[in-house]
Amino acid sequence: MREAQPTAILLQDYQPPAYLLERTELQFLLYEDHVVVDSRLQFQRRADSPAGAALQLHGEELELLSLAIDGRALEPGDYELTEQGLEIETVPASFQLQCRTRIRPQDNTSLEGLYKSHSMFCTQCEAHGFRKISFYPDRPDVMSVFTVTVEADRARYPVLLSNGNLVASEDAGQGRHRATWHDPHPKPAYLFALVAGDLHYVEDSFRTCGGRDVCLRIYVEEKDLGKCEHAMRSLKKAMRWDEEVYGREYDLELFNIVAVDDFNMGAMENKGLNIFNSSCVLCNADTSTDATFQRIESIVAHEYFHNWSGNRVTCRDWFQLSLKEGFTVFRDAAFSAAMGSPTVKRVEDVKLLRTAQFAEDSGPMAHPVRPESVIEINNFYTLTVYEKGAEVVGMIHTLLGPEAFRRGSDLYFQRHDGQAVTCEDFIRAMEEASGMDLGQFRLWYSQAGTPTLRIQDEYEADTQRYTLHVQQSCPPTPGQPHKQPMVIPLAMGLLGDAGNLPLRLAGAAPDPETADNTSRVLVIDQAQQSFVFEGVAERPVPSLLRGFSAPVRLDYQFSKGDLHALMSRDDDGFVRWDSAQALATRIILEVQDQLQAGAPVAVDGLFTQACSELLADESLDPAMVAAMLALPGEDYLAELASHAGGADVDTLHAAREAVKVAVAGACRESLLRRYEQLASSAPYAPDGPQIAARSLRNTCLDFLCSAGGSHLERALAQFRQARNMTDRLAALRSIAFYGEESQRESALQSFYADWRHDSLVVNQWLGLQAVTPAGDAVARVRELMRHPGFELRNPNKVRALVGTFASQNPVHFHRLDGAGYGLLADVVQQLDGINPQIAARLLTPLTRWRNYRGRAELMCSQLRRLAAMEKLSPDVFEVVSKSLEDAD
Ligand code: ZN
Known about the structure:
- The protein has 888 residues and is an alpha+beta fold.
- The longest helix is centred in the middle third of the chain and has 24 residues, at 573-596.
- The chain is 40% helix and 21% strand.
- The chain is built from 28 helices and 32 strands.
- The two termini are 18 Å apart.
- The strands form 8 sheets. The chain has an 8-stranded mixed β-sheet, with no helix packed on it.
- Bound molecules: zinc ion.
């Protein structure tokens, strides 16, 4: 065990900073084996902080060369230096601190602070990276105007970038040059960025609603110049959308994006200089799938939207992270919905939420949207903060309606422009602009766990009254044994024989937010409530949680017939999809029971019939048909089973496959027909209709292949003839899953031979082999870790191979001999010394040990093995110790 255990930081201990920082001047001298950083910081004591307060600066892994106040050098006795930073006991009320440090970016494998990716220098400062660059008050409520000079060798680093506008550019002698950047907008250090490298760019421009022209550039390695067009188009669409929908205009002359291969997350919203993981910005039709095009559009928008929700208005402290992330995810989701099919976008987001976020919320790392205690902040860039945080903003939108919500966001941006604020400030702006009391609603920020809505109904034919009885509850989570009732907007309708029925809620006016009266939002705010509808002429099927109006579990005993009716006839697209999923889940669990009882497999004909109907309905968006046909994933099914004593992964997998084969058999003709009919010879475009057609066509192919035999020939032909990466990879996946070993191996080999030069494509290839259930996946992953296409220091490679294996190949990860768990723990152990942030993230699947039947001891023993390691990062320490907290 490590000597000193890291301690938790608490929200309730927040103190404002004693000193404000008006100006930050930085100079970087970049060399191959070290970098010298000079800073001049203009401090001012805050009016209400006591005279004589000490100055606290953060700093980690820095070599201090010199320190002075107002030109007077400080002696070692004048300050105290620790592992965490330095403290100067006595400082004047207003002064300039000059500091020189030396750092070694070439040895920085954590990818936080200033580091090298191939030959490029780049930075990642959120959340605590700046303290690895220089001594500084590295906290988001200290905002400062930055001027940055970068000096480097001209031949190796012709491009020198930082935030804001370029104000000077000059020769520095001896083959070196220098550039000075000034950012007029005060910002916290986490938004600082610096890039130096041999970069090329694609340029465009954007005229803002205020009539200013902004120069847009995407900087990449020369070989990637042909992969920038889609990101550039997405950026311009996002800029326009934010003007039109939120009234937000861009505020600098320049907007730069840089693509970097080694990056811990997706992208970073540094002011005027967004840095992107290359996998989240580079794409073209030859090398990228439809999913990649869509992801890039949404991430480019997300980072751009942060310019207002995050940068102009930032967070007071990191417990408020969801203030910027939840709101920005909400904004990017609305943008993506507007750019494509809103229902399909919603379905994808809900899938992620219900599998991964719900699992997080019921696991040992569960925390509120606004956490109250944190050991390592990097562990809190979670699905709860991002996705559930976005759902919480979405519920405010639902409760207020679009106009009041827009007034609220206007007030928030205007009132807090240039400030570092809290979730409370956001809620208050929403309340003031709408006149609505969100008092009880605030529990969504402080209570962890996923609430359940248990609903029962009653119909009286003689009085034509239909009653919904609603009960809410929320399970205990770490540190929160008892929960208060929340405010849950329940969007609903009632389905009759001929369609949705008009709603007459006893004692209420029609819902003003819905034009027709067949849909409304019931506000659940007590532990138990009942709602009576009048004039209901027939017993309806309730259409509940339309559009997934709240991040809750729904518990209502639908019959299979009810689900079939909803999936075929309800007005709400989301409910149709959800009912198809619920029906498929029911069928898979029935087959699992049959397998466990040793009985012959019999798939209910109602389900295969529903699938045929879907395939036959050409009036439906093919993307919706594909989403509705796709069987719920094994991860989702396992999450559901966590309430019932844990998932039995092997029979679950077998049952799901058996249902797939049954659909392939029963719907063979219609699958083939749609497969042929949806073929297209049009040139590739990542547009809605084409993406929809490809997704349904490849879904049909995969069902057919699950039945094996001659269908594999079709996949092999598609693999050889495909003219875009979506179709090629889809075919390869079906071959890898369902082909003979020789087919699988030769297709995988030929794919690698064709694409080995493109690292991002190689990552797709690694990921596919990691999820393939056929063969010995543990041995395959171990072998691929020694392949030249793999690199432990590159987070994208680790995620593609090891992360994908552990999170998406349940049968092999959960092998009963523990080999899958051993593999993951081995990698985490090795990686912890290199990149703790990625090591801790990789560990997530092991924290779910309560969800898997018969595996708890095996999983915990690997967690214990990690806990016993001598040098453990705070990142991994936090995950391991919380996961083992009440394991016997
Ligand atoms: Zn973000």
